[in-house]
Design goal:
CATH class of the largest domain: Alpha Beta
Distance between the termini: 55 Å
Radius of gyration: 23 Å
Helix content: 25-40%
CATH architecture of the largest domain: 3-Layer(aba) Sandwich
Structural class: alpha/beta
CATH topology of the largest domain: Aldehyde Dehydrogenase, Chain A, domain 1
Strand order of the largest sheet: 14-15-16-13-12-18-19
Strand content: 15-25%
Largest sheet: 7 strands, mixed
CATH superfamily of the largest domain: Aldehyde Dehydrogenase, Chain A, domain 1
Oligomer: single chain
Shape: globular
Bound molecules: nicotinamide-adenine-dinucleotide
Number of domains: 2
Number of helices: 17
């Protein structure tokens, strides 16, 4: 393992920038840390300082081809490696991520704008995901089926071969580390495509595991735009593509994948998730859950955020007042400060998008009762304070479209049917939260909402081992569970005739 460490003790953006700029960032291809074959790079700015913090390789189709060649060459030996040995490699990746958590979290905060506290928990969450799939390896079993007399019929689960993991920017190290786990345990070789906005922790991960993972088994390919991911999707040898990102990109990937083969594409996409609060719920608990559910600490950049509060008329006033009070206690400031609660949006583009939605919401007739303008006194950090809009109606764009920012819309209802209709009246179906003390209503509404992940009297939290994924335009497939591991295998049925 390389001993080069990127400013492990850095606590401030300026300190860290010096070392990220001086560092020679490289792809991981065929077991080697290499520049892009063309020599192309792109400038990577920080949303905390506005300055360029690194020059990053811009991989193109030639780099993807080289990674795929290396992966295909490595596959037979990796697939034949005894499961306990593959598992040991995955556990050691987790150990290295934990051992370098301080460094990785600092990179993510500088690169992606998340607050330092949460960047740290992301590093540990990535390691926990590696451990979870190592623990789940025993699920890679087949069946025997009594299908006929005089024969044994059994199934085996085999790895697919070369698989792709294309991930978004909101949890950089958690996705980079955690999402290679299932493919590796199942015996595949994996191409990881980190987000262009926050690629550094994934590239650092490549340095940390280059000597650990056999050459070609893991490749890490960064790029300035869609071209790198597109080349991965179109390569005829990547037959399994697991994508996490926006619905718009997910649809492009389905289309591109179909042009070069019959491919297994899973999609973890966006959400416009509802938290429904019924009249019997405690308004203080609802408000606390609505604030937590919005993931303001990630500036709302979380797919599962309950960005629509669908609240009964009778509770609205008390719930909104408490939300505004709680938001007022959140500290906005330097993402490197352990005391800060709200971090920066990832990029100028995302910042501009959120500001645009503030205007759209107002123009459509909604009222900002908290936030509603860029943060002041935070230097160049791209921060929009937690914002709450009341007077939102289901047809408004801010109630229909995913903003992926710190923007909570409050909608009101009278009847249970109306609440469910509002919750389901969007194209997405990722998460939903239901607040009520009525057990019958809780189960009825949980069954009726079109969402893949439902909290009753809760929000926001993920429980590792339970399937996460969406209905409708929120995706195809489930992750963070055994189903994710099995999705990186092919089932083979074998018939042994003995009579
Ligand atoms: P995005 O779709 O713009 O990009 C995601 C990844 O896809 C990036 O690595 C990007 O470089 C790559 N990419 C872009 N165009 C591509 C193309 N044509 N072909 C192949 N790859 C391509 O998403 P984003 O803005 O980075 O992330 C935000 C989105 O991700 C939101 O919609 C959010 O809800 C979603 N998300 C979903 C989950 C989930 O588990 N359901 C988790 C996190 C984020």
């Amino acid at each position: 393992m390389t001993e080069t460490v990127v400013a492990p003790a850095a606590r401030r953006a300026e300190e860290l920038t010096e070392s990220t700029r001086a560092h020679d960032w490289r792809l991981l291809v065929g077991g080697e840390l290499v520049p892009a074959r063309s020599g192309a790079t792109f400038a990577n700015p920080s949303p905390v300082t506005g300055e360029v913090i690194a020059t990053v390789p811009d991989a193109d189709a030639a780099d993807v081809d080289a990674a795929v060649r290396a992966a295909r060459a490595a596959f037979p030996a990796w697939a034949a490696t005894p499961l306990p040995e593959r598992v040991a490699v995955v556990r050691e990746i987790a150990n290295r991520v934990r051992a370098h958590a301080d460094e990785l979290r600092a990179l993510d905060t500088l690169d992606g704008g998340n607050i330092i506290r949460l960047s740290r928990s992301d590093a540990f969450a990535g390691a926990a995901m590696l451990d979870f799939f190592a623990d789940s390896a025993h699920a890679l079993t087949g069946q025997t089926i009594p299908a006929s007399e005089g024969a044994v019929h059994y199934t085996t689960l085999q790895p697919i071969g070369v698989v792709a993991r294309i991930v978004p920017y909101n949890h950089p190290i958690m996705f980079a580390a955690g999402k290679i786990a299932a493919p590796l345990v199942a015996g595949n070789c994996v191409l990881l495509k980190p987000p262009h906005q926050a690629p550094l922790s994934a590239l650092r991960l490549g340095e940390l595991i280059a000597d650990l993972v056999p050459a070609g088994v893991v490749s890490i390919l960064t790029g300035a735009g869609p071209a790198t991911g597109d080349a991965i999707v179109r390569n005829p040898h990547t037959r399994r593509i697991a994508f996490i990102g926006s619905a718009a990109t997910g649809r492009k990937i389905q289309e591109a994948a179909a042009q070069t083969g019959v491919k297994d594409v899973s999609l973890e996409l966006g959400g416009k998730n509802a938290l429904i609060a019924f009249p019997d719920a405690d308004p203080i608990a609802v408000a606390e859950s609505a604030v937590r559910g919005m993931n303001f600490s990630w500036s709302g950049q979380s797919c599962g955020s309950t960005s629509r509060l669908v609240v009964h008329h009778s509770l609205r006033e008390r719930v909104v007042a408490e939300i505004v009070r709680l938001i007022g206690e959140l500290r906005i400031g330097d993402p490197f400060d352990e005391a800060t609660d709200v971090g920066a949006l990832v990029s100028q583009e995302q910042h501009a998008k959120v500001l645009r939605y503030l205007d759209i919401a107002r123009a459509d007739g909604a009222t900002a009762v908290a936030g509603g303008a860029p943060a002041e006194g935070v230097g160049k950090a791209l921060i929009v304070p937690p914002t709450v809009f009341t007077g939102v109606t289901p047809d408004m764009r801010v109630a229909q479209e995913e903003v992926f920012g710190p923007l909570l819309s409050v909608l009101e209802f009278d009847t249970e049917d109306e609440a469910v209709a509002i919750a389901n009246g969007v194209e997405y179906g990722l998460t939903a939260a239901v607040w009520t003390d009525d057990v019958r209503r809780a189960h009825r509404v949980a069954a009726a909402v079109e969402a893949g992940y439902v909290w009753i009297n809760g929000s926001s939290r993920h429980y590792v081992g339970t399937p996460f994924g969406g209905f409708k335009s929120s995706g195809i497939g489930r992750e963070e569970c055994v189903e994710e591991l099995l999705s990186f295998t092919e089932t083979k049925a074998v018939h042994v005739v003995y009579r």
